[in-house]
Amino acid sequence: MGHPGSTECQRHGVGMLGTRSQSLLSGTPEARALTRPLPHSPEPGEEGEPVRSGVELEPEEPPGWRELIPPDTLHSLPKSQVKRQEVISELLVTEAAHVRMLRVLQDLFYQPMANGGFFPPEELQNIFPSLDELIEVHSLFLDRLMKRRQESGYVIEEIGDVLLARFDGAEGHWFQKISSRFCSRQSFALEQLKAKQRREPRFCAFVQEAESRPRCRRLQLKDMIPTEMQRLTKYPLLLQSIGQNTEEPAEREKVEQAAECCREILHHVNQAVRDMEDLLRLKDYQRRLDLSHLKQSSDPMLSEFKNLDITKRKLVHEGPLTWRVTKDKAVEVHVLLLDDLLLLLQRQDDRLLLKSHSRTLTPTPDGKTMLRPVLRLTSAMTREVATDHKAFYVIFTWDQEAQIYELVAQTVSERKNWCNLITETAGSLKVPAPASRPKPRPSPSSTREPLLSSSENGNGGSREMSPADGRIERTLSTLLPFCRPGPEGQLAAKALQKVLSLKQLLVPSEEDSGAGPPPEGDGVPGGGPRSPTQTQEIREELLSLEETIKQLEEVEEEFCRLRLVLSQLGENTVSQPGCT
């Protein structure tokens, strides 16, 4: 039963997405099969799903338009009409080729796989979902096109009503639904078939034998499964071309409306394909996810993630980033941006670890803080890193703390994309108001004064507060003093200026060094001239101090940014001199 001339199973194995044979898209006659009449179009059911009848046999592929029209009639038509009729003919001929291909899938693969017990019925339905319905829908559309050609003779003046009947309304919705089912599982089907061929020689031999049949026209199974998606991409182009060559306004409007319906169907199917591919990736990540570090952690903020299931969430974006935990510690991570979480995954062999990292911070009792690998986006915001255009900060706030994560992308454009997506995703999340607070949230003007007076005078006022309000009040009371106006933002700049002045006094510039001997008394403190060694030591010390203060200036700039963010959290917009 092996494929003629084949020496190994994998040569005809089911691989990734193949290229459809160009013969399916040409306008020449290709098949001469059985010619039983096609069923008539049933009425849609209550939920937009027409009642389906039995599948008919393969139709004869119709001839091209130029093969039917007499030469004298052809020469009498304007060029736009000739073009229009050729495109209508291409629509009809390629629709017949597509119906033939779908029936090959059913007759040579789907039904024999079901009869041979290669897959459980449920799994086979996931590999060929809605195949019967697709054959029915495309066959009915082909039947209507053929009837319109028979009724119109050589020149089809009106085709818009036939197109709208297929792509608009309840029939269009049903077509969109079954196409989405089939196309969204295309990647899954190809992977399942490929894996089955690797595991089972009997199934491999069956596929090879089926592919050797003349009806397959030398196409492999992996080339046939994507044909429905490829057909959907063809419809808008064909209908647009028909509309562009239609002169009658009402008819042109119908064709253009049908073309727009096709574009909407294609958009919906593309989205369904992306959603399914994302789900399959999340399932693969979930299989490889290592939660052992979270389960061993005593961090209360991680307790809800010890049995994390990411397949119940939506994947927004993913990609590699560098996580700068400290100045001297960087970790390569694969970041998943979900609809409500940000995950920092570390690859270890085939596993994906969710692992916290410590960073030394003096305000904590033990001098360290733990940076968590799972973060909720409800309170997330992003900021650029002034000293690295590829890096960005993600700032997360909780009831009693805030943490800053520095992440580095591979390019500036990737950094911008990450920042935009994180900001948009976080902005789409709404935190529900506590049930104990029925009144609307106070405005910034009414909130600012009690918060400031509470932090400065130790008096929270007479307003009654819920426990959540009290925690926020205490947290902001601690943070808001850092937002007071003051000259601190210029501290590093002033210190650096003093160093420069001191350097000019102690170490003359090269321009001044050649002006003559130094004036009397110019030397080290305490009198006496400076030796060359002493001068070099002073120069090195000053250069080191200058570099240190430059670094302090960068740190201070980021600290000022954080103060501005914290002031916004307290709804208290205080001007920060030196931090702009």
Automatic annotation (TrEMBL):
Occurrences of domain PH (ranges): 314-427
Keyword Coiled coil carried by entry: yes
GO BP, sorted A to Z: G protein-coupled receptor signaling pathway
InterPro entries reported in the protein's UniProt record: DBL_dom_sf, DH_dom, PH-like_dom_sf, PH_16, PH_domain
GO cellular component: cytoplasm; membrane
Main location: cytoplasm
Keywords linked to the UniProt accession: Coiled coil, Cytoplasm, Guanine-nucleotide releasing factor, Membrane, Phosphoprotein
GO molecular function terms listed in the Swiss-Prot or TrEMBL record: G protein-coupled receptor binding; guanyl-nucleotide exchange factor activity
Start and end residues of each stretch annotated as Disordered: 1-71, 430-469, 508-536
Residue stretches of biased makeup (Low complexity): 444-465
Subcellular location: Cytoplasm; Membrane
Residue ranges of every copy of the DH domain listed in the record: 83-272
Gene3D superfamilies noted in UniProt: Dbl homology (DH) domain, Pleckstrin-homology domain (PH domain)/Phosphotyrosine-binding domain (PTB)
Protein name: Rho guanine nucleotide exchange factor 1
